[in-house]
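Researcher: Here's the sequence for the chain we discussed earlier.
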Amino acid sequence: DRPPRPATERQVTAYLLDRALRSQGLVSLDSICHLNAPAKKAVRELIEARVRRRMLVPVTIEGAEKVPHWAEPAVLEEQGPMAQRVHILSPFDPLIIQRKRLKLFYGYEHLFEAYVPAEKRRYGYFALPVLFGDRIVAAIDLKTDRAAGRMLVQKWTWIEDVGVEGRAAIEEELGRFERFQLAA
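Model: Thanks. This is the structure I predict for it:
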């Protein structure tokens, strides 16, 4: 009969931190509060409290020593080999949008080229970065031809060689991606 009570400020702050930890694994204040600078003070206080309770561990990243990062202890214990999984990422994926984080972790700088004149484009109008294991290895500019029921590769740029097996894994994922995009 009555609407639920709104979340408290404390609940919203915990949600921001927990969501970032769940989706990113390794977080910084900027990655947690991307486009939400007013939340930084409360999030920092919650991080400090969780560090004191040993629920979070400070992490130093080589090349970014001045930017504090944190992770849950269990995440740091899972240091097995990185699976060679393939992800075709949208230019609007949070991993791609947070460009400083993308550059820090993958050494890759993505520019959304839809607004760049055609002759100056490097990867293509709507290039999709390809994450292979722990590396960005390609950018594929795709266009969907719904009338013909297929996806067209406008441009495929290799950033790093992945060998025959890597190429096959990417081709397989591209087929799955095409089926998903064309599903009615």
